[in-house]
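Please decode residue identities from the backbone states below.
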């Protein structure tokens, strides 16, 4: 059995908002996609009904029923989903579930595809159009799949639930779930986009890049999906991408207090109505929490001293030391306390 797990962008920031996705490899070929307008009416109806039913299970906190309706490889590895259902129930309870037009994905062939790319809808000479979408899934076995997104609205904590469904016999079974907040720090994608462009105009390219990345994340309900809107934002972000911050897995060194810190990630994080900046770095040992706390503070102050533009964009900075085992220790400083 081959198992693949997909989680939402920035796992550390979105803990509890991403459910695992698993499938069993059964045996590469062509990939085709149908939009909702291309589907036969009974197929579209079945997908929308199934998506709404699974959403209702999550909103009730009924992970047992959800597990019974999962594909076998997911049902036997359901712990993460059970925990995530519990974490998200408060946000979904009482919310109205609105199902977006689904997509139907068909993967032909005998072997799993290392990278399956589905182009859905009409594409123009410049790429995607307003109604198109692209889905990328890795290690995908042949089969018929669907992507259905349910928006939870009517509450203060709006979120989108993206489901991967797989057809087994006459039924559409759950193969994976992603949950993503529709707002961060009380703001939506349009707000982050506007602020990013303002920062760019001021020459604050690091702030602009971080805000564009946040806008991209809020524009799509799951990282497996891209649209015309996300493609345009990505192009804008590329234009201001910094070389002195960690990007796409690279490591950047920052000297502070006689120590060189290896930065592995920098990203915004909403905390209540505030937006903080999170920096992750490699640490040989975090067992001495007092020393690690001091190291965190030293790094935070050095980061803001080197990039003072962060003072305008974030309410505080959090540093998280990650040891070789993956364990972390984090602490934060409000911006007003960073001298």
């Amino acid at each position: 059995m081959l198992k693949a797990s997909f989680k939402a962008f920035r796992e550390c920031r979105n803990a509890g908002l991403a459910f695992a996705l698993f499938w069993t490899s059964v045996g590469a070929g062509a990939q085709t996609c149908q939009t909702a307008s291309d589907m036969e009416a009974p197929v579209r109806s079945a997908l929308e009904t199934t998506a709404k039913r699974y959403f209702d299970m999550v909103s009730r906190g009924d992970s047992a029923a959800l597990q019974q309706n999962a594909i076998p490889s997911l049902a036997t590895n359901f712990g993460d989903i059970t925990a995530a259902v519990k974490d998200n129930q408060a946000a979904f309870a009482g919310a109205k579930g609105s199902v977006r037009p689904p997509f139907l994905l068909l993967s032909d062939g005998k072997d799993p595809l290392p990278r399956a790319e589905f182009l859905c809808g009409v594409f123009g000479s410049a790429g995607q159009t307003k109604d198109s979408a692209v889905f990328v899934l890795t290690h995908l076995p042949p089969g018929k799949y669907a992507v259905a997104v349910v928006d939870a609205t009517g509450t203060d904590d709006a979120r989108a639930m993206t489901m991967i469904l797989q057809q087994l016999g006459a039924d559409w079974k759950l193969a994976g779930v992603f949950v993503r907040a529709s707002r961060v720090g009380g703001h939506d994608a349009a707000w982050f986009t506007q602020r990013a462009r303002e920062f760019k105009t001021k020459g604050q390219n690091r702030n602009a890049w971080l805000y564009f990345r946040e806008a991209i994340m809020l524009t799509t309900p799951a990282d497996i999906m891209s649209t015309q809107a996300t493609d345009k934002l990505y192009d804008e972000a590329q234009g201001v991408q910094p070389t002195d911050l960690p990007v796409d897995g690279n490591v950047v060194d920052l000297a502070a207090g006689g120590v060189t810190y290896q930065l592995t990630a920098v990203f915004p994080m909403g905390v209540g109505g505030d937006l903080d900046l999170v920096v992750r770095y490699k640490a040989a040992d975090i067992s001495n929490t007092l020393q690690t706390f001091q190291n965190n503070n030293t790094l935070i102050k050095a980061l803001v001293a080197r990039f003072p533009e962060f003072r305008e964009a974030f309410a505080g900075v959090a540093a998280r030391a990650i040891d070789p085992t993956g364990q972390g220790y984090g602490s934060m400083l409000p911006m007003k306390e960073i001298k």
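Observation: The radius of gyration is 21 Å.
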